[in-house]
Task: structure prediction
Amino acid sequence: MQAHYAGAVPLDLLGSEQDRIARRLAFLDAQINAGDIEYEQAKAHLDDCLALAGDMHAIYMSIDDSLRRIANQAFFDKLIVTDDDTIHGEPGVPFNVFLDRDVQTLAVRQQGRTAESGTQTGDVVRLNNDLLVGPEGLEPPTLSV
Result:
């Protein structure tokens, strides 16, 4: 506005720039809203999968044979039955992550850290408190004069 009052920016240019900014803001708002919806849908899906993975055996034992086949297809990519009737399963997505021992160990360890430290950033997406910059900072040390 100051540039317009000083005569440096004509009114039509100022108006077109305001329109451009308003369109860009509307586009960004739509992107944010779409991202929120996708996040909520993904979170709901993961919550459902975690509930299923919580006690797959109980679910499996409580359903009939036709549903057991569907459960096998949902939980596993492969089920291998050996000659001695031993069964080895290769979990499918996303259960392969939930059932991975290393992932479970890291999750339990992180849950313990969050509970101990009382940090409020434990649930923030993509925030990793383990890899924060130390007290020395990012800059290389310099000699004092």
Remarks:
- The chain has six helices and two strands.
- Strands lie at 76-81, 87-91.
- The helical segments are 2-5, 11-54, 56-61, 65-75, 95-98, 101-117.
